[in-house]
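Aim 2, interim progress: modelling of the iron/sulfur cluster-bound target.
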Amino acid sequence: MKKKVKIVAGITWAFVCLILIIILFPGLNSFSASTAKLPFMKINPNYTGGEVANQIVAESCTLDIRKPVFDGLFKERKNGFVQLDWRGNLPGKIVDSIDFDHDKKIDFCIFIDRKQLKTTIDQFNKNVKNIIISTPTSYGWSVRVGLRK
Amino acid sequence: MDNTLLSSSLNKSFGKSLLYTLPMFLITFMFMTGGRLNFSDPYSLLATLIAFLLVNILYFMMHYSGKTDRYRVVLFIIFAMSLSFTLIKNMIAIRSSMSFSQADVLECKIPFCHLVIPMMIIPAAFTKSIIFPGSILNGFANISSMVVLWLVATIVLGRGFCSWGCFYGGWDDGFSRIRKRPVIKHINEISRWMPFAVLFMVALTAALTLVPTYCDWICPFKTVTEFEQVTSLESASKAAIFISLFGGLVVVLPILTRKRTQCSFLCPLGAINSLSNKVTPFTVKVDREVCNECFKCVEVCPLYALSREDIRAGKVSIFCSKCGKCVDACTKNAIHYGIKGVPAGHLKNFSRNLFLFVSFLFLAIFSAGAIISSFQSLLKLVF
Ligand code: SF4
Ligand code: SF4
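Predicted structure of the complex, ligand included:
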């Protein structure tokens, strides 16, 4: 009796799997869309650069200053970064003063020579470290500046 | 004589094989053509027809000859090569190079592959986010669709994913068939557990650093897909590791051992797929009543999934990828596809037919896009 139940259960499970494979590809778009809605299905800020906290609009371009990212597995890390994204029609040389912590004090000044691919910063906040990334992007230019807590 | 016995038990007449191929024929036609042929682009039409005929001839031959691995591997290797070819071709068209830049990472434009999955589980649980610079839902190889495809395949096929679904496995499977006889014959049994050690290590380091460490530092298949632009000592070291591991574990060792050494000793996803062998209804069974302990199956198994002790105990290990090589090699038809719950030696043909349909359908449809695209490029190159 137990043996028969096992056989029936095994074969039933095999047929369920057959159906799963048959519906997998026609249903892929809708299964993927549902999966994308799961709470953990978003890219970690260490990759996206974090949410935009402040946007500065100039004549031909905008500067997005993102929220500083310190995300770790369980808690915030000691070291992180702030990402800056310039979009639009950028000048050859970019000079901006950044207040990323909104304390109305300049934390650092950034100088980008796009032609020479040269980026430097002057720090006024002891928690501002060095430039981690400075690169042209499809929308303009991005920089990540290292921070400590 | 025994070979004839085997063939007569698994193979089918021409007409019966055609009948068994008919459902595959119809389903693959619908998927590959979308239900109608596109006569406006002759290259695409021809490439689709060639791919369509190829998969259906291979499936027909599996039924007609009674052999599985012999025909499976053809599609599996073509899939691996086509995917690399298509990916590299697309990248060269978009980025003029096989490497991705810092900007591609910042813009989350990196195609996702299933090998990232072992590293994203713990961070997803604790940070509620994915530690990969790809797209969640849009574009080629987005994270959601790749996760769904892998999840369903691993539930349905278990480690069968590694012989019927993975677009990398075809590389070491292919190289392992180059020599007729192995130069290196024995390995320590314990090495079979190495992927679990790698899994533990990469899952832990990825959780601590929130970086997919296997992709970043180890994956040999970066060599045939894409890798970080070499701009520093660190990126140069990574490139050197990728190339050395590809050369060693995917090319040289498979040739010398006739085994899939990358999949046997390194891949962390292979370890997870081995665990899902516990879930799938499909398995490979050993019929002790007819087994004469010739151990041909042990010799040919490309994944070190069989030992003499396993055969004596009448079972295959959790490392089995259901490739069918042992089934093809067994002259007694003692080792065979089975369904869990059904005793060994029973419903051999039914189990094989059902498993072949499920696994081959997945492989045929999953591989279709890459194969058609690479055939199309080759046709354009030649004509
Ligand atoms: S072991 Fe890894 S690389 Fe090999 S086939 Fe399986 S998932 Fe693919
Ligand atoms: S036990 Fe047989 S089916 Fe499983 S991996 Fe080895 S040769 Fe392939």
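The pocket of iron/sulfur cluster (ligand 2) is lined by residues B 284, 301, 303, 305-306, 316, 320-326 (CB under 6 Å). The first helix of chain A runs from residue 2 to 24.
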